[in-house]
Design a protein that fits this description.
CATH architecture of the largest domain: 3-Layer(aba) Sandwich
Distance between the termini: 47 Å
Largest sheet: 4 strands, parallel
Number of strands: 16
Structural class: alpha/beta
Radius of gyration: 24 Å
Shape: globular
Strand content: 15-25%
Number of domains: 3
Length: about 325
């Protein structure tokens, strides 16, 4: 008699960049690896799984196809889907270098890559490659060189021996950022607090596209408030003066104004009491680029055992 798998503790993170079917496939594989699903266990039917998780049946079908490809499950015609065995053994993480001249954009790429399994990321300053402070050969240890489409061609020129590892990605304001920016009334006093002039221009371009006159937008460099992770001596007074008369302040998602040190809280509390808002501006990979990155990571991992096997045979 078939052993029907117990109710599976599967759920989706709707905020994650990974497609729903990939999340489900990973969770089932993890249950097999942990021994909570054993070879021969029959999975619930597609409709039952879809209803219990709250997704379309097509999402479950794609997850099962992914598990079939990995050899984690097998399909028996007219009977169902059964656990076949353990997922492939884990190999080391895919090493990614995020390359850009904009520290805020690099931080956004890093946040998304860290949400992927089997991948790590280090930030690389494109300006350091441009002026030779960082040799191109220092990137040879990375499996992928992730950059924005804006810098794709330039990065390939700077690292010609590694050009095939360059993966361009399209970036844009996150959906929540688009909504919050659209809520800023025309004509109010706007301020920007960030690390780089490049990110300031990205924010200003977005505001201008929404009809704001950015010529009067205030700007405060983040390093006048915080340096080496600690508030500067003049930081609290600089912040209070900057917020005075400002209605909305736009900041990157890792801004110290969103998780403020104690010395900034009085100025921010007065700002909020006067109706002021701090709006995080998150710049991230578009969904299609994130899926493309995931697929590239999986391709690299799937080739590794083959390469290692050839070395052992030799």
């Amino acid at each position: 008699m078939d052993h029907l798998a117990p109710n599976l503790p599967l759920s989706l993170d709707r905020r994650a960049g990974a497609p729903a079917y990939r999340q489900l496939a990973r969770q089932v594989a993890a249950l097999v690896r942990d021994g909570r699903l054993a070879p021969g266990d029959r999975l619930p039917g597609e409709r039952e799984l879809a209803a219990s998780i709250g997704v379309a049946r097509g999402t479950v079908q794609k997850a099962i196809l992914e598990l079939l490809r990995q050899g984690v499950v097998e399909s028996v015609h007219g009977s169902g889907t059964y656990v076949a065995g353990l997922p492939p053994a884990e190999s080391g993480p895919v090493r990614i270098a995020g390359v850009d001249c904009n520290p805020e954009a690099l931080a956004g790429l890093a946040r998304q890559v860290r949400g992927l399994p089997h991948a790590t990321i280090d930030a690389v300053d494109l300006d350091a490659l441009r002026d030779g402070a960082r040799p191109a050969g220092s990137l040879a240890g990375y499996d992928l060189l992730l950059t924005t489409t804006t810098h794709d061609a330039e990065l390939r020129r700077l690292v010609p021996a590694l050009a095939e590892r360059v993966l361009p990605t399209a970036v844009a304001p996150a959906r929540g950022t688009v909504v919050e920016m659209a809520r800023i009334p025309i004509g109010v006093a706007i301020g920007i607090v960030c690390r780089s002039e490049r990110f300031r221009r990205i924010i200003e371009d977005n505001l201008a596209g929404l009809g704001h006159d950015v010529r009067d937008a205030g700007f405060l460099a983040e390093d006048t408030l915080v340096r080496d992770g600690a508030p500067t001596a003049s930081g609290p007074s600089r912040l209070a003066a900057f917020l005075d008369g400002t209605a909305v302040v736009v900041v990157p998602p890792d801004s110290p104004l969103l998780a403020p040190p104690v010395v900034f809280r009085e100025a921010l509390a007065a700002f909020a009491a006067a109706g002021g808002r701090v709006v995080p501006f998150e710049y991230q990979m578009e969904r299609g680029s994130l899926v493309h990155l995931e697929e590239a990571v999986e391709r690299i991992r799937s080739r590794r055992p083959e390469r290692e096997g050839r070395r052992a045979d030799g």
